[in-house]
Amino acid sequence: MSSEKPTNNNDSIIKPELLGGFRDLLPAEALMTQKVVDTIRKVYESFGFVPLETPGMENRKVLLGNTDNFNKSIFLARIVRGIEDKKIANDSWDQDYTLRFDLTVPLARVIAAYPDLPKPFKRYQIGKVWRGERPQAGRYREFSQFDFDIIGSNSILADIEVIQVMYQSMKALGIDNFLIRFNTRKILNGLAEAVNCLDNSKELFRIIDKLDKIGLTGVKSELMRQPANEYDDTALAMTENKAEKVIAFLQIKSESSDDVLVKLQDFFGDSDDLGQSGLYELQKISKALTDLNIPQKNWKIDLSVARGLDYYTGPVFETTLTDIPEIGSVFSGGRFDGLTNRFIAGSNIAGVGASVGIDRLIVALQKLGLIDKRDSVTDVLVTIFDPELQKYSMDMVQELQQNGYNTELYLGDDYTFRAQFSYAAKKSIPFVVIIGPEEMASGKIQLKDMNARKQELLTKEECFANLKSSLGK
Fold first, then answer.
1. Predicted TM-score (pTM) of this structure
2. Binding residues for L-histidine
């Protein structure tokens, strides 16, 4: 008798699990994503934006600059050639391969690397990005961004066009109740100057950005907070008078943009150059949106919009959905002049654009009932009555496809009608065509409407007319 132990086949079985913070998009989710992307892409292209693709992996210095001191959690990668490189794989990371954490820095590299690109350069890009942040509900380490940007234009018309694109994208998706809120870094710089806080403006803007979460009382408390210790350099320690001035600024609100502009003029007076520069930008944008007949219900000046102001240099935009504000911003962006300074010293190339949150937007569209969840793109399933009649079924598939209908031939091993109808139901295929001996003899076909649960014996012409009426094709 052999002394060898039997092999445990389970030892070679690998559990089909995902890494934390990553996810699969099964057909239903992938199809919804595709539909939203295609809809928005058409809007982008209607304004003349062209596609751009960049590698998912970049040189570390391209993404992070010449420093190892950065505050982003990133993914590094390296090349390993099997078990002989095990020691190398365990050594310190000395390679330059880094997964991108956004699409903007790669865009800057492209602009610097290809100076002959016509300016203004208008591009859109959709792609995966990776961030090594702690996974939590709704936040992943790998997710898609869908950006559009105008590079090389200092004109306020470019900022206005960004708002137009955001507006048209929301309308194309069937959303009517949304609000594009905008502000400008220059107005907030004027506020910082007015309260002698220009040197600590980043912290001031961070506190203002928390307004929705902590309210005016919380903002005032944060502004006046004293340092906790000698190392606490985030405390602004404002006097009550200065904190009250910030609160007065944040209370400048009105449904009328003209009222907001008048109140801003009163707040800054005639001597504040930074504030006046920002006021001019808001006036130009407001007038243009009015002239373009974009409804006032879909846009407003909101002085509390302070997102990313350590990054943006001019107007900033945020889009929220009026019916479900808890979703948060679904489309945001702003002006970011100086895009290529990392690559070309002093180039100061202007840029403005926005990014749509695809995942968040899909959740919103589902809640609003504006997008269907389907597991299939198929319009019609053609059944196989038995193998001897499969030629006729294949001919029917071809004819339906030639007439513009996404059509599947049933490819399962179980030819029972129960199995074939079950397949159609599971994939949400709306119509099933049946061709059996009786249909062959009469020159007709059976068309089953899976949603209405109705089956009819029709001529081919009647079948196509029915499909055209039901599917709009």
1. 0.88
2. 102-104, 131, 145, 149, 307, 311-312
